[in-house]
Amino acid sequence: MLKRLCPLLLTGALLVAVLSPATLQAQDGITVSKNTVVIGFPTSIGFSLAAASDSEITDIRLHYTTNRQSFAQVTSEVYIDFTRASSVDIYWTLDMARLGGLPTGITIDYWWTLANADGSRLQTEAVRINYDDNRYVWKSLIQGDITLYWYNGDQAFAGELMGATQAALVRLQEDTGAHLTQAIDLYIYASAEDLRASMIYSSEWTGGVAFTRYNTISIGIASYNMAWGKRAIIHELAHLVTHQATFNTYADIPTWLNEGLSMYAEGELESVYRAVLTMAIAQDSLISVRGLSSPFSAFTALSYQSYAQSYSLVSFLISEYGQDSMFQLLSAFKQGDSNDGAFLDVYGFDLDGLNSLWRDYVMAGAQNPAGDSLYMNVALVSLIVLVTGGFIIAVFWLWWRPRRV
User: Domains plus CATH for the chain?
Assistant: First the structure.
């Protein structure tokens, strides 16, 4: 379905007024004559209410929910500060920074409750609004459980990205047994800059993000950067598939497993990650599996090593124990198993056991056909790279290019 409203630019922010379906509601002496919303994507939502009563209106509250995935419905309640009177006209702004920002395409339901001095109360009907990035006129392409939205580029551009998306879903199911259980929306911005302008909080390197609780992905893909764009889509798509396969009320899965599955879904590990992993093996500086279970380091070098090791761990589990075991592992997490408990149930070893087995696996793989250690070869190659400056240039480029989160 195409996104609906035309853009309306006002002092640099997009403002869209939404009228409630019922412009007049009354109950027990309280009458609502205005109930509107102004959406200033992505920074704010303004709520307007006008009401009158036979006696002073003493209490006004705004209630709202989003379509965020949860095991329990969460309703936010706002106590409105106003001057008591028999007739009121109020405006309250929801600062989206308080929510950390919300992605385009979600829905928000809201309603009001009012009370007067006589003890009468009124609850308005719930109104559903679409929180859309209407700075652009979106086109859409639907295939299966995927709806792809884009605004820059022709049908072939969208079709190529959709093809990569569908192929990724097939590979994910073949490798892990996991598949989409809910439909997702994929928003393609024309650049990383356009994407970052749609977010409240973003880093200068942000190129794509999966909003797992909203089944939404937003990525900035320029037409000249399709190869990177396809990998970015696959990476974020894998995050959504993994989330749907493991979502539970207890805890998230280990960071290395989440990121490793996304890296593995992309295909062959990129050369820079291979180089970082090889160096870590040669220097015996591998991060432990338990260390990789928490959020990754903010330091660039350690971050790349964490992603590379995560790929290697997932590759090890799938190649050595198969797809069925990986799917059982994801299912165990969905049932609420602990990290160690899930691995013990499925593989018969805990995270420390995995760490030991995996280290043996990668160390054995670091031997050349003649059986000689690659340590000296790696050191020689590294020295050449450092002398020529190629390694520094590569790291600099990777730091500034759009990256996935």
Answer: 9-131 (2.60.40.10), 138-247 (3.40.30.160), 250-405 (no CATH)
